[in-house]
Amino acid sequence: MNNSIAKEKIVSLRKKRSLEDMRFKYYGFTAMCLSLAVLVFLLYTIFSKGYTAFQKTIVLLEVDYNQEVLKLTPDSSDEDMEKGKFFRVKKQALENFFPDLSKSDIKLVKKLFSINVDKEIKDYFLDNPEVINTKQQIWVTAHSDVDQLLKGNSRRDVPEDRRKLNDIQLSYVDQLVEENRVKQVFNNFFFTKADSRHPEIAGVAGSFMGSLFTLFTVFILSFPIAIGASVYLEEFAPKNRITELIEVNISNLAAVPSIVFGLLGLGVLLNVFGLPRSTPLVGGSVLALMTLPTIIIACRASLKAVPPSIKEGALAVGATKTQAVFHHVVPLALPGTLTGTIIGLAQALGETAPLIMIGMIAFIPNIPTGLTEPSAALPVQIYLWVESAERGFQEKSAAAIMVILIFLFMMNAIAVFLRNRFERKW
Amino acid sequence: MSNSKILANGVDVYYGSKQALFGISMDIKEKEVTALIGPSGCGKSTFLRCINRMNDLIEICKVSGSIKVDNEEIISEKTDVVSLRSKIGMVFQKPNPFPKSIFDNVAYGPTIHGLVDSKNELEEIVHSSLKKAGLFDEVKDRLNEPGTSLSGGQQQRLCIARAIAVNPEIILMDEPCSALDPIATAIIEELIDELRLNYTIIIVTHSMQQAARVSQKTCFFHLGELIETGETNKIFTNPDNTKTQDYITGRFG
Fold first, then answer.
1. How much is the pTM?
2. CATH of A205-422, one of 3.30.70.60, 3.40.50.720, 2.40.128.110, 1.10.3720.10
């Protein structure tokens, strides 16, 4: 009798326990789905807003390269050609863009084109000097307002005074569409140009290079210092209060808000040492300080993971401590250290606040070619574009986010690759 | 007494405040195999690691007393640990080849000590060391493969070859067969028997049979004290101390 009651109890308890199991599985699954959904939503938003930035609108323009208007002759030297009066050619082309345009109409027509059109007309001619005295149909970049209208990003059903393009301009655009004189092509400007006040010719090349130079500085500064510090702490330093204190503070340093490092850069690097403002050199130095603890922690962890038997083996055949460490322990810890370094660099790549502090938020319209040239960085560029009122910059910022995400993704892929390729098993 | 290689006198070892060895005195003869036996934690490995100063790696470990190798004191601040260790090779409990090629494993010692001037010489040393360790025939076609790709027994012989390559006079073995199967163990034991002709060998072992098979002298440790030392034959057949008797007959340990 007693026995069967006990058995019943056990059975009911077992049911309860397996139910608990099920519940936990369900909770976990829900949590995973939730985070996955958020991620998908995020990526979808970025992509759906940004993919149009990879296209630009171009308009067919008939240009008459008349030698009288250009003030050139077919025999002009290259230098003279540079000085040709291309703005007059453009003016003429715009006047004849539609038949019978009045003066005020021409002004409206002019606003349909990018500021870059002058250069495009000139470049076309310099590439093909034989077109002098002929009429050429060339595709030129449309103004961002036209671009946004055709991409459906700006609405045409709002009152005229709240639109960038007025009714006449809208009718012009419609006419262009009807006559197939407008089309959308791949936006090479986005990848080859630096920032600009004009959305249609703004690109990420400048900030991308800036980020690259900054990361280079971070790597050059932080990697050797971090390796030196971690090898010393892990292998040579006596274990006492002072080293313990240093260890704790390295961990603390990893948690310091990045803007504090930015203030440090502003106060010390710019104001005391007078390094050039807004440059990858300063930005990289500041981010290197921020990245150091991350790399040190990763490097020490991988040094610790090297089995002590390897070091003992080296010491037992008569290697000095330095030889044992640098011939055997450090090479084995290198893959893990590199992985940690790349994670640290990825963190540095996305950092905005310290760069703002040291002036990398300045508007830089050209692509930097060195460490001491003013430049922007990708996250700061995104910040600048998001803040811009122009509608054309909205898609640009989403596209720049895509660029930075792909950059990060690739860095992480390299980290995973290095780990799998060089990690050794014992 | 003239051919005594290692002379230990009153060696005390402390790990922090805990004393691990109590006044160990021992006389180890040249070109003999001496086995250190005793239950786990009795201090035999600790003593072994005093002889090539491997205990220096453990920060809380303090060694006092005197150990003389070839009449030279080695428990001293002035001892050149690096040259001491090149004179006293060591083989560990778990095979620990470097994660490098078989060739590089053996070549490492001679290279850092500058024992060779040319590539040919290095090759010669590597080959002869591998031959002495009885491994050459098994690996001669794959010297560039990683040492870790070998079997456990081969790895242990590779470690012996690595130790031999720097031309030591003494080889310390810390339970070299405890991670190996019986066949690999038999090969290593045979090897130890051969090596005895050229090297002084001290081996720590948990296997009574192994001690009986390979050694000429046996020392029995218990709770950090050296209980008895003598000819292996005598220790295993007619020990003086009852503790030794109890241990070798399997009554404790």
1. 0.83
2. 1.10.3720.10
